[in-house]
Amino acid sequence: MNDARCLLQICSLAVCCVVAPASPLQAEFVAELYGGGSFTNNADVDFTSSLGGTAVTLQGVKFDTSWTVGGRVGYWFKEVGELGAFGVGLDAFTFRANSDQQDVQLNIGGSSLGTFRIAPIDTSTVAIGFDVLRFRVHLAKRDEFQQGQIQPYVSVGPALFITETSDGGNIFPANQSSTKTSVGVKAGAGLNVHLTSAWSLFGEYRFTHFTSDATFHTSAPFAPSQITTNTDLNTHHVVGGISFHF
Fold first, then answer.
1. What is the pLDDT of residues 166-208, one digit of tens each?
2. pLDDT tens, residue by residue, 234-245
3. Whole-angstrom Cα distance, residue 162 to residue 66?
């Protein structure tokens, strides 16, 4: 009888362990939605012809302030000691880097030819970021928030940028578009604040860098060619959003 009672107790304990919710100190999945602004640094735009010759550079092109919207799924591994946790993430977002009609410096072969008025150039980007390294610190711990109610974090990793570039009249014929894919980098830092154990709010600064290139066709008599544009885009993003924890 004692053996039967002991076996029943062991079985009951095993069932409780299976159906009980995971400890908050264990790994967790996170789904996030966010939005905010993007600010792209001034940059040089190089024009190169397939027929050869010296590249033409538009110096110091200014880009409009735009928006950034996206979503991210992440996985946080088990807590490292009592400090925090490492994680990974997959991030998809979109933003624009448009330049309006403006006067810029025209440079050919290292020689400045003075001021040149350019037509608008619109750049629309969809990015897929791979946060191969994320780390968060667990602060303000208590019973309800055993992993901390306040969680500063950092992240870094490569990103794939799919960019559509539309020229408004710098190349003839006008109003051409080109879509290219390039690899760059995304890094960020933010602060996550839990309102409950199931969801939280966060704010984040992130920086993206990639080289945007585009290819356009010209229809000059007797010398049709391709014109390639090349621009290093460095963009600052300030976003905020909501996180759901599982």
1. 999 888 888 999 999 999 999 999 999 999 999 999 999 999 9
2. 999 999 999 999
3. 17
102: left (phi over 0), alpha (psi -120 to 50) or beta: beta
* CA pair distance 98, 124, nearest whole angstrom: 8
Task: Determine the Cα–Cα distance for residues 44 and 233; give it in Å rounded to an integer.
Answer: 9
| Residue partners of 56: CB distance under 8 A and separation at least 6 | 46, 47, 48, 106, 107, 108
Coil, strand or helix at 51? coil
The Cα 227–Cα 121 span in angstroms is 14
Cα(242)–Cα(240) distance, rounded to whole angstroms?
Answer: 7
The class (CATH top level) of 26-245 is mainly beta
Q: Kindly give, in sequence order, each residue whose CB lies less than 8 Å from that of residue 180, ignoring residues fewer than 6 positions away.
A: 162, 163, 165, 212, 213, 214, 215
Amino acid at 222: F
Q: What's the pTM?
A: 0.86
Q: Are 211 and 194 in contact (CB under 8 A)?
A: no
Comparing CA positions, the residue from 141, 138, 127, 126 lying closest to residue 87 is 138
